[in-house]
């Protein structure tokens, strides 16, 4: 990667006031966006450290006490005998289960689309692309109706199976193999007497690590945060993933639903803590991918 | 040749297309859903009973302690307690979930706490061939003697086609709440008519700015004021015909009175239950026209008003009218699922919850069961908090609930909250919002299969 | 590039050399795609067909022609729901295109790489809070009682949460939420696309004396036009699907927001409150058609996607 800032000399013909103005626009926009994107996150991280009263009275961006975080934690996990834990476990099962299925299905499919020839390949590819671009939510209601037909509503499969259908993952694998696995290598191996399965398992799969990581990341994040489908197909609150559980918490929170929520310990700090806990796995993944981000950048600089 | 063939193909395609379009436009069958039949209602066949099996209970957080108390007192009953929104504020959570359970054929909770609106759909099948969710409790489940013990008219929202589908938990008759200490200190008389209420409100606004005599900003404020004002907003003249006429003099006089008080800043458009109200103005509520549960729930729990300050007076009348009428704000019900495999335990639970002194004497709301109501009024915890005896006002109001405000298949809160409240927040007057409110009610009614009359 | 960028960079128009054709070897291809094809059939094609079938029949399974659609169109809630969606879409797409492209250009050519990487990361982080979490966070941001920007809300004349949720504000609020969670990701994508522009091109422009703004307008933006179109269509298709956000606002505002604010919510009410799955299907078919159209357009008309090796 080459240095991307333009040296000041580049704009030498421009008069100074316009340069100052241009700098001002840049600085203003970047800092405005910075506040816009970061401020809510900062508030969210600080909120559980205060009591509900302090959250209203004190400076919104002040820190309360660690003691209060502990209290909020106890209240949150005491809600409905630890429902929060059940929801987190459910989320892990749904996202984890569908992740395994997604990988098991999309890696061979992407490989076949990229490196084998069969009748209907093009059609399959086009359908994959179209379903990939179509927003997932369009199909949620029909999928619900279909699952209902097959009496799958309310089962683990009603969430895991639709989650496992991930055309974007197939497309990623397809692009990856199409561009990074030389066909000559495969042909050579074929001549050596490798079966198609051996080609896939011994040559393609070991090479696919980076793209598997990528598919896993997007599939997991997308499914963990999905709300609409589980909201429709899971009637019982013991089966909810944590996103739907958050909705349940919201309706029980006195600050947003004073009539129904009175008498519960779920107030602003508990709700904020619940949000943090609910997104923690995804957030960790994001932060973790930041390391890949840096090393990827270094790798990128040697490429060009 | 090729061109000719293509032309033929085109012509054929056009013909097919136009035929298809014609067929599409003509249609063949009605798009309406099959009308719900009430034929099977009389024959209630319980599900296979399994003695001692676990029962699932859905309650709102307010009623949760009561259910837990039952569990403690009956450790042998296997129970699974789930909190949900309890049908508050026009929520349709329960209805959506029952739709789902009906489709999956399992998963129904055995006992649920809900709103009277919930009974309207729970007493009907959600689709052809389905069993109505609510079990007819009068059908060998709850003895007649118990049903007779409920306050007059309090079971009306539970009754359809001669059966009783729920037990009423509490009545929420509207009374006039006031801060006795402040009234005495400032030398005000407790109003007995709407005209006096209005005059006092304007005087308070002048003499003690910031103090309030009411709020119209909650999701249920219309029940406090317009129901009490006998406004025909939700009047089922026939089971399938709703009369909604907000230009009726009863509605306009209430709207006008409130508009005057809103202008004077004596009545607020912020909800008593809205975020931050308790903190900012909780101690400045001189009067509140609202349900019997305001005492424990609003003044004590939310506003933290000290004991011996708050008192209740009977409903207001209009000058020249002798008989007062009042509204009803909420008043939950308990239903038993017709799918329950343990009807015995379920029925026992709802009976205990609604009728036992053990539960109701210390309930947060005024019991619908007459004997329990007596116990509730005698409970020192209820009476000690107030600045005087509230039983007279409560009992009188319980008898005066106006019956012209019907229990419809849709919640009366939706139109009020989504049309009237935002308009009030935006500074519009109630009087000028009445037509929009009426239109929304009429639309909702039609969408739910009612015929609408507006005269 | 970065993991974040690989996502779409991988989808980028691949100009690399295409592998040589190979004769099909047995049926291996079929075995490899079998699992995926089953899922595609079950959760892509069949539901689509099923919803079309439902939309043209009634609950007795009788063919109804367009009657379901006629019935739905006559519903008093349909007009407002689609109008809300439209206003929201316009706001959201304009904000997205203008701000994302502008920011990406600035991050690419006006800021040092390390700073740029930090900014991109910080802008992207809210993406982790997509869905319910983002709405909950914004409920607090919009509540003057607890919001860190309550001074701003109050100076705009909004003293209470209820006033913030005035019906006219809703499209703007939903736009803010969508922008907060989604824009950062698109900035990363646009940055990646800008990064693909060869340095020589920019160098040549500089030689000609073009300033950074001029370079951006005349060279960089036209060169990533494909990507802007891609983003717009994706954002449009997703925007038609509003459900969670208004649904939660409805709950949190105690019903001040209509329960049928967006078309998807209306479909939900049809299905789960009125028990009318055919009517619900009619609404989702309309939305589905919009999504299909957008997707088809993108696949057929742009060369963003690699379909064939030839």
TrEMBL record, chain A:
Record's keyword terms, sorted: Cell membrane, Membrane, Sugar transport, Transmembrane, Transmembrane helix, Transport
Membrane disposition: Multi-pass membrane protein
CDD domains to which the protein is assigned, alphabetical: TM_PBP2 (cd06261)
Similarity comment: Belongs to the binding-protein-dependent transport system permease family.
Residue ranges of the TM segments: 21-46, 92-112, 124-145, 157-178, 199-221, 271-288
Subcellular location: Cell membrane
Listed name of the protein: Multiple sugar transport system permease protein
Positions of the ABC transmembrane type-1 domain: 88-289
InterPro entries associated with the record: MetI-like (IPR000515), MetI-like_sf (IPR035906)
Organism, as annotated: Streptomyces pseudovenezuelae
Automatic annotation (TrEMBL), chain B:
Source taxon at top rank: Bacteria
Keyword presence, Signal: yes
Gene3D superfamilies: Periplasmic binding protein-like II
One of the Pfam families matching this protein, by short name: SBP_bac_1
SUPFAM superfamilies recorded: Periplasmic binding protein-like II
Record keywords: Signal
Signal peptide, first to last residue: 1-31
Claim: rRNA-binding is one of the keywords in the record: no
Protein name (Swiss-Prot/TrEMBL): ABC-type glycerol-3-phosphate transport system substrate-binding protein
From TrEMBL, chain C:
Family assignment from sequence similarity: Belongs to the binding-protein-dependent transport system permease family.
Record-annotated ABC transmembrane type-1 domain positions: 82-298
InterPro entries according to UniProt: ABC_transporter_permease (IPR051393), MetI-like (IPR000515), MetI-like_sf (IPR035906)
Electron transport is among the record's keywords: no
Subcellular location: Cell membrane
Lineage: Bacteria, Bacillati, Actinomycetota, Actinomycetes, Kitasatosporales
Membrane topology category: Multi-pass membrane protein
The name this protein goes by in its record: Multiple sugar transport system permease protein
């Amino acid at each position: 990667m080459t240095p991307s800032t333009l040296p000041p000399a580049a704009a030498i013909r421009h008069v100074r006031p316009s340069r100052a103005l241009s700098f001002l626009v840049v600085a203003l926009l970047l800092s405005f966006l910075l506040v816009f994107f970061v401020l809510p996150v900062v508030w969210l991280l600080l909120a559980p450290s205060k009591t509900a009263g302090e959250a209203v009275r004190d400076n919104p961006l002040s820190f309360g006490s660690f003691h209060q975080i502990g209290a909020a934690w106890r209240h949150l996990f005491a809600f409905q005998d630890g429902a929060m834990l059940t929801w987190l476990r459910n989320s892990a099962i749904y996202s984890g289960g569908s992740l395994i299925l997604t990988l098991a299905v999309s890696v061979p499919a992407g490989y076949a689309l990229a490196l084998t020839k069969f009748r209907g390949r093009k059609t399959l590819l086009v359908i994959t692309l179209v379903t990939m671009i179509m927003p997932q939510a369009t199909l949620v209601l029909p999928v619900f109706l279909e699952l209902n037909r097959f009496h799958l509503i309310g089962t683990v499969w009603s969430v895991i199976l639709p989650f496992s259908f991930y055309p974007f993952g197939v497309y990623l694998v397809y692009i990856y193999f199409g561009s990074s696995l030389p066909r000559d290598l495969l042909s050579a191996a074929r001549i050596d007497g490798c079966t198609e399965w051996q080609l896939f398992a011994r040559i393609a799969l070991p090479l696919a690590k980076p793209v598997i990581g990528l598919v896993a990341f997007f599939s997991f994040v997308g499914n963990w945060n999905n709300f609409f489908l589980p909201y429709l197909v899971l009637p019982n609150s013991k089966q909810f993933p944590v996103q739907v559980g958050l909705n349940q918490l919201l309706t029980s929170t006195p600050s947003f639903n004073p009539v129904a929520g009175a008498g519960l310990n779920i107030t602003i700090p508990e709700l904020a803590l619940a949000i943090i806990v609910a997104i923690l796995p995804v957030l960790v993944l994001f932060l973790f991918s930041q390391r890949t981000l840096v090393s990827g950048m270094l790798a990128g600089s040697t490429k060009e | 040749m090729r061109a000719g063939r293509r032309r033929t193909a085109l012509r054929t395609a056009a013909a097919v297309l136009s035929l298809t379009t014609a067929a599409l436009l003509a249609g063949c069958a009605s798009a309406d859903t099959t009308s719900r039949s009430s034929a099977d209602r009389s024959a209630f066949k319980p599900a296979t009973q399994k003695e001692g099996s676990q029962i699932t209970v859905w309650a709102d957080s307010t009623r949760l302690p009561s259910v837990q108390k039952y569990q403690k007192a009956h450790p042998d009953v296997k129970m699974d307690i789930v909190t949900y929104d309890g049908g508050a504020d026009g929520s349709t959570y329960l209805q959506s979930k029952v739709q789902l359970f009906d489709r999956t054929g399992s998963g129904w909770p055995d006992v649920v706490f809900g709103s009277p609106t919930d009974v309207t759909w729970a007493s009907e099948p959600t689709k052809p061939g389905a069993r109505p969710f609510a079990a007819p409790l009068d059908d060998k489940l709850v003895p007649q003697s118990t049903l007779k013990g409920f306050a007059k008219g309090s079971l009306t929202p539970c009754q359809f086609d001669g059966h009783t589908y729920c037990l009423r938990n509490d009545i929420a008759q509207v009374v006039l709440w006031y801060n006795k200490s402040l009234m005495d200190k400032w030398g005000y008389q407790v109003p007995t008519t709407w005209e006096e209420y209005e005059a006092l409100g304007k005087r308070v606004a002048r003499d003690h700015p910031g103090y309030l005599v009411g709020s119209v900003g909650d999701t249920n404020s219309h029940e406090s004021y317009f129901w009490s004002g006998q406004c025909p907003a939700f009047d089922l003249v026939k089971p399938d015909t709703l009369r909604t006429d907000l230009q009726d003099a009863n509605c306009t006089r209430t709207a006008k009175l409130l508009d005057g008080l809103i202008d004077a800043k004596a009545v607020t458009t912020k909800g008593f239950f809205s975020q931050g109200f308790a903190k900012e103005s909780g101690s400045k509520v001189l009067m509140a026209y609202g349900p019997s549960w305001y005492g424990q729930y609003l003044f004590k729990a939310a506003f933290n008003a000290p004991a011996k300050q708050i008192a209740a007076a009977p409903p207001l009348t209009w000058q020249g009218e002798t008989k007062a009428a009042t509204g009803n704000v909420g008043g939950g019900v308990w239903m038993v699922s017709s799918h329950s495999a343990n009807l015995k335990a379920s029925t026992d639970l709802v009976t205990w919850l609604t009728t036992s002194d053990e539960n109701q004497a210390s309930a947060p709301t005024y019991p619908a069961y007459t004997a329990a109501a007596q116990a509730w009024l005698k409970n020192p915890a209820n009476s000690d908090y107030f600045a005087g005896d509230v039983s007279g006002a409560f009992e009188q109001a319980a008898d005066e609930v106006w019956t012209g405000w019907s229990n419809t298949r849709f919640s009366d809160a939706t139109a009020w909250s989504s049309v009237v409240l935002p308009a009030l927040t935006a500074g519009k007057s109630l009087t000028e919002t009445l037509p929009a409110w009426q239109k929304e009610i009429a639309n909702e009614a039609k969408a739910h299969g009612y015929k609408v009359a507006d005269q | 590039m970065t993991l974040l960028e690989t996502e779409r960079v991988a989808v980028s128009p691949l100009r690399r050399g295409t592998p040589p054709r190979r004769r099909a070897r047995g049926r291996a291809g079929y075995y490899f795609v079998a699992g995926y094809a089953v899922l595609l059939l079950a959760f892509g094609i069949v539901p689509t067909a099923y919803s079309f079938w439902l939309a043209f029949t009634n609950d007795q399974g009788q063919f109804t022609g367009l009657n379901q659609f006629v019935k739905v169109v006559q519903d008093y809630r349909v007009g407002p729901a689609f109008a809300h969606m439209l206003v929201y879409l316009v706001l959201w797409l304009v904000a997205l295109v203008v701000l994302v492209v502008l920011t990406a250009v600035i991050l690419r050519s006006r800021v040092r790489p390390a700073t740029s990487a930090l900014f991109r990361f910080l802008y992207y982080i809210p993406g982790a809070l997509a869905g319910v979490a983002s709405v909950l966070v914004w409920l607090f941001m919009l509540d003057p009682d607890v919001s860190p920007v309550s001074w701003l809300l109050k100076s705009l004349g909004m003293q209470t949460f209820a006033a913030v949720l005035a019906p006219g504000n809703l499209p703007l609020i939903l736009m803010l939420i969508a922008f907060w969670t989604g824009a950062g990701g698109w900035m990363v994508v646009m940055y990646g696309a800008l990064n693909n522009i060869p340095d020589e091109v920019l160098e040549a422009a500089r030689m000609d004396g073009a300033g950074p703004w001029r370079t951006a307008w005349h060279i960089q933006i036209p060169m990533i036009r494909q990507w802007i179109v891609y983003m717009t269509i994706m954002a449009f298709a997703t925007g038609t699907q509003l459900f969670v956000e208004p649904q939660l606002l409805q709950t949190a505002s105690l019903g001040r927001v209509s329960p049928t604010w967006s078309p998807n919510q209306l479909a939900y009410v049809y299905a789960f409150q009125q028990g009318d799955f055919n009517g619900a299907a009619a609404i989702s078919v309309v939305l589905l058609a919009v999504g299909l159209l957008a997707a088809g357009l993108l696949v057929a008309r742009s060369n963003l996607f690699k379909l064939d090796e030839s």
